[in-house]
Amino acid sequence: MAKELIVIESKKFLTAYTDDGIDPYIKQAKELVANFDYDLSTATSRAKIASLSSKVSKFKVKLDGVGKDLVAEWKVKAGLVDKSRKKMREELDELRDLARKPLTDWEDEQKEIERLNAEKLLAEQKQAQVDQDHELAIEQYKTHLREVSDKKISDALAEKLLLEQQEKDRIARDEEIKQQAAADAKAEVEAERLKAIDDKLKAELSATEAKVKAELLVEQAAKLKLEQDWLNYISEAYTINDDLNAKAELKRLADIAEQNRIQAIEDAKTASSNAENARLQSIENERLAGIQRQKDKEKQLKIEADKRKADEEHKGRVNTSILNVLVKHGISVEDGKKMIALAYRELLPQLTINY
pLDDT digits over 133-149, tens only? Predict the structure, then answer.
């Protein structure tokens, strides 16, 4: 296989650019590229790849030049020639790019490597600057620590005293809350005691009313019995006269009186039983109400304790958040704590903490 491209002979110009006569020349260029032994390992071999691409490009130029000459001589068939030229240019441009593709890919890869190396170098330079700034900041901080060592001791003592005062204030507040809770509980117990007395009086009154009603019923039954005895006496008197109609009427009245007496006794028993049941139910209701009041009291105390705990935790989180912001802006932890403590005790009129 020839390593050089054969240009069209002048006598074959017309044939080459008509009836697809240019295809053999394109084919020989393709075969030259297809049979080329690509090697990217050395500069010489990469130069050969570039040379191959250049040959194809020059071959295209030569063939194109032949076509141009033919068009100049043969205007009538310019359309056919231009068509072949276009086809030739496109395919040979594509072939040129294909021939150079391994080298182009390699060059692109080298550019990417160079870009990555440049980015790495820039990152290393930035990191070196960060390290340098960090070391400088450490030295400045050490100097600052040496300069304010005495002040820190004084501030620490002041903070300790302030924290102790805060603890005393907190204990005082808790004691005040406990005393208030005790007073509320005492008032609640007194109210419950008065209510229990009132409920007991109501129950006793109900029992007394039931007892009176029962006594009245018993008295009514006794009266009915006297009436019955009187009717019996009358009946005996009428028996002497042997008056049948009177006897029947007396018997009817006697039966009615007996029924009324029995019903009065039953009503008295029922009233007495209801009064006792009402008394027992009142006692049970008072016992259950006392249990429920104790449960409600314990629940309320727990709610208040949980509320106080949640309030302390919330204030702690807010104080920590404020301290982090102060430290972030260059204020020491000790100074930040002192500022927060003073603001908490409202000793800084211009600075308040919104919890």
Answer: 888 877 776 776 676 65
